[in-house]
Amino acid sequence: MKKDSQNTDPDRLLRYRDSIYAADLLVCAVACLDFFTFLSEGPKTFDEICDKMEIQPRPADVMVSLLLSMELIETNAHRYGLAELSAKYLVSDSPDSLVPYYRSLKNRPQCLEFHEVLKTGRPAGWSSKDKGDSWTKSMENPEFADTFTAAMDSRGAFLARKLAETIDVSQHNALLDIAGGSGIYACSIANRNPRLAAAVLEIPPVDLAAKRSIESKGMSARINVVAGNMFDKIPTGYDVHLFANAFHDWDIDAVTTLAANSFKSLSPGGFIAVFDAHLNQFKTGPLSVAEYSCLLMHSTEGKCYSTKEIGDILMSAGFGRVEVTDVAADRTLISGKKL
Is the pLDDT of residue 78 over 80? Predict the structure, then answer.
C-alpha cells in the first residue's frame, strides 16, 4: 500500500553508499583479529587494545567506535568489554560461536585490506582498486580529481541546500569554502545570501574542476576560485571559513594544523564552520556515521571525528563560543567564533 506521505530525502541512499565497508571491518575484527575472544579475557583500555593486538590508534579508534555503535561492545570507566550478544556469538570457544561463519569471508580483499590498515595505519587504495593509490595521492590525477569532484557535487546537491538553510551568515561579508571541491556549498550559501561574497580554495588540479563546476551552475560571477594549499596558507580577507566534509580526510595532526591556519587568517569577529558527519561525544553513534568512518579510515588518512574532538581542536586553536547544530542525514555543523 502506498503511503500518503513519503519522505523523499536521500538519507537512506547516502547511508547505503557510505556504509559499504562497515561489514568488512566487522568481519576483519571477528575473523582476522579474533577481537571478541580477546575481550572475553576481561575489559581492556584503548591503549591495551592497540598494544596487545598490535594495531594503530587511528584505525583502532574507528573499529572500536563501530563496535560500540553496533552495541557489540560496551565501555565503562575507559575500558571496553563484551556486550551480551557478542559474548554469546562472537567468542571463539562459545558453544554458540559464529566465528567460523565469519571466518569463511576472511579472505575477501576488503577484509585483508582492513587488516593491513589496522596494522600499519596507512590507507589502502581508493575503492579497493588493485594496486591503486590512496585518496590523497589519487587526487593529484586530473581524471580522478574530476570524477571524485563530480561525485561529491552530486551528494552536495542535497546536503549543501540543507546547510545553506541552517548556517547564519547574515552578519558576515565574505565566505571562503576551504577544500571546497566542486563549489556546491559556496554556491548554495551564496544563492541564499545575495550580499555575501564567496570563494573556493582548492589545490591544483582540483581548482580547475571547481571552476568548471561553478561555471556550469551559472555562478562564476559570484564565486571565485583561489588555487592554493590550505596546509601552507589560507588567504586573508574572509570572515567565514567553511570546511565542508574536509576534516574527515585527514589525521588529527593535520586537522589541528588546519584549525590553527584558519584562526590565523580569519578576520576578527568571523567564525569557522565545520560541516561533516560527526560521532557523538562518547563515540557510541550515530551508527551511520560510524559506518561511514570505516570507508574513510580504509581509503584516506582520516576518519569521522566526534563533536568533542572537533570542539577541543577549535578551542585549542583559539576559537570561542563553540556550538554544535544538527543539519541533515546525521551531519552536523560545528562552529567557533574568533573573538
Answer: yes
